[in-house]
Structures are given as structure tokens and as C-alpha cells.
Amino acid sequence: EKNGHKHFMAKEIAEQPIVIADAIRSYLPSGGDQVVLPGADLDFTKLDRLTMVACGTAFYACLTAKYWFEQLAQMPVEVDIASEFRYREPPITGRTMALFVSQSGETADTLAALRYCEGKADKIVSVVNVPESSIARESDIALPIHAGVEIGVASTKAFTCQLSVLLMMALKAAADRGTLTDDELADHYAALRGLPTVMNAALDQNPAIKTSAQRLSEARDVLFLGRGLMYPLAMEGALKLKEISYVHAEGYASGELKHGPIALIDKNMPVVVMAPRDTVFDKTVSNMQEVMARKGKVILVSDDDGIAEAEDGVWSIIRMPHVHSSLTPILYSVPAQLLAYHTAVAKGTDVDQPRNLAKSVTVE
Ligand code: F6R
């Protein structure tokens, strides 16, 4: 049942090209030239804002989606952790879509946050992996992510399927609201359809990722840095590492480095820098140089162009294929997940069932 893999987590990481292809096919029908939300009649011109609520890894998917909805569809987005949102009781005004993201669909805080929005938000929408779940049933619209059953406690394929569905929703919003041209939309669709192939190429980097992980397994603390779309992923990479390898890790926005965490940097501190060669690359590289000037050990995750420009002095390199800039968080999830996986294996921890954690958090 693990398909030849040692752990469910490894199997679930490896099957991402297949499940993402399923998700993409069901929202972007082949031959078609638009995103169709299955079973849902949603018109984003009738909505002014989006409030997204989730926990843990699903929360990082929401943070990533904030960049997409704002940049592609010009929609104001608020993102919150369910346990904060539900007790803060924020005002829900105007034409708001409340969007809940949950793999299990049973997370107690997320469900309570959804119930708080009933009668206040214009539309209650959920993005779930379990269509029969409480969160799906109590939503006006429940959108499936098509990840299939996820057994490893640390979420992997559910995260990348959540991201894929959220990106397609943002593209639907952009098409409805006329914020992208037809050519720009066509570029996104073509890139999405090519994503499973590119994910396979990222998975082929497993040996290099394993070598870097060997080094992480000797560290006490690890810092993950990213800017823009890579910032939420830096936090997700840090969460994966602490969950399954018990190595302390923090994810930071690169620009925040000098506002505190730089004090931690010394020769014992590995810093994973997630940086495709995008519009904020130069800024991230200068942050990376600040780390190296203090003898911090940089693991650079980038593409050919980025590596050619910035490899001097880095400790180790993980090479990613080139991909459309919107898709980098999905693609760069692969090295984030595999770094945590191989570190945990090197440390001999229980990868699929880390201590103190449950797959579905039905109590608060
Ligand atoms: C991390 C992880 C958790 C869950 C969180 C929300 O690997 O699995 O952080 O993402 O407990 O769970 P769902 O998505 O079921 O609401």
C-alpha cells in the first residue's frame, strides 16, 4: 500500500504529479479555455473581498493564495488562523466571501470559524479533501482538492492540491473581473497543464535534496527565508521540518532578517533560501549575503538562472526546473517536503506518526 516507499509520506510526496494533474483536469477541462469551479456558480464580480481562514499547513496555503488573489484578481484578501479568528469575532462587512481550507474538513477551530461567518458573509466556500466532512457539508459551496486519502500526519500532497485549486480560483476571479488579458490567462492555463511534468523534474532532484538534508540533521536550529510567494512556503518548510524531525525551525520573510533573526546567525546555523529567479530575487540574494557574511550556511533552492547568479559561497544547492512565476510555491513545495522527510529519516524519527500530533484535530 506504500507502493514500494518506506513511508506514506514518501509515497504521498511522490504521487503529487498525479493528484495535481487530477485537480487541474477537473477545474480546467482539457480543450477548454476557462476555469470551471465544479458544481459551483460563483461570480467574482459580485464579491468585493475575501476572508480566508484555516490552521497549520492549510493556513500557509491561504497565505500563498492571498498573493494570487491580490495580484491576479485585484481582490483585497484577509487571512487568519482559525483559533484567532473565531474568538476575535472580526466584523464581516460588504460583499465578502468567507473561504475555509481544510484537508480533513473536521478541524474544530476552522469549523467554528465557519459557523461564526454564517449569516454574515455573502458566500461560505470551502476547499476540502473530504467531501463528506462537516466543513464541506456546512458550506454553500465545497470545492474538492482531489488529493486522495492522505495518511502521513504531515500534510504534503493535500497542500500542493490546495494551492493548485486556490490558484485556479484566483484565475477564475481574474477572468470574471477582467484583471488579466486573455493572453495572460492562456499563459497561466498552459503553465498549469504543464505543471505535473515539471513536478516530476523537481522530484528527480531527490538525491541532491537528500544530501542537503543530511547536513540539516546535524543542526539544532534551521532558518527558512523567502520573499513574496516564497514567504509562506518558507514557513511551511519550517513547519514540516519541526513536525517530523523535531529540529527547531523558523520561516521568515527575507526582508525581516535584519529586524531580529540575524542575531541567531553563526557557523552552526543552516539557512534554507527559497529563491526562484523572480522580480524580488536580487533582494533575497542580498539577504543571503548578509547570512554568509556571518558564516551562516546557506542551502540555496533556485533555478538555473538564479544559481548562475548567486551560487558563490553557498553551502549547498538544490536546482529546480524553471516554471511560470505563479507556480513556484507549488513546485518549491517538493524540496521543502523532501528536506524535512530526509532529515527525519536521518534522525530516525517516526515520519508518518510524529509524536504528539494527530491527523485530524477535532478538539480545540
Ligand atoms: C501540518 C499539518 C497540520 C494541518 C492542520 C489543519 O503538516 O498537517 O498543520 O494542516 O492541522 O488540518 P486540516 O487541513 O485537516 O484542517
Run of helices and strands = HHEHEHEHEHEHHHEHEEHEHEHH
Poorly predicted runs of 5 or more residues: none
Instruction: Give the overall form.
Output: globular
Attached small molecules: fructose -6-phosphate
Instruction: Give the radius of gyration.
Output: 20 Å
Question: What structural category do the secondary elements indicate?
Answer: alpha/beta
Distance between the termini: 32 Å
Beta-strand content: 15-25%
Mean pLDDT across the residues is: 96
Oligomer: single chain
Overview of this protein structure:
Keywords: Aminotransferase, Cytoplasm, Glutamine amidotransferase, Repeat, Transferase. Homodimer. It is an enzyme of class 2 (transferase). It catalyses: D-fructose 6-phosphate + L-glutamine = D-glucosamine 6-phosphate + L-glutamate. It is built from 14 helices and 10 strands. The longest helix has 22 residues, at 182-203. It is of the alpha/beta class and 364 residues long. The strands form 2 sheets. It has a 5-stranded parallel β-sheet with strand order 2-1-3-4-5, sandwiched between helices. The radius of gyration is 20 Å and the shape is globular. It has helices at 8-14, 16-27, 56-73, 82-88, 108-117, 134-137, 157-177, 182-203, 206-216, 230-245, 281-293, 304-310, 328-331, 333-347, and strands spanning 49-54, 77-81, 96-102, 123-128, 141-144, 221-226, 248-253, 270-274, 297-302, 316-319. Bound molecules: fructose -6-phosphate. Residues 55-58, 102-104, 107, 110, 154-155, 239, 243, 360-361 line the site of fructose -6-phosphate.
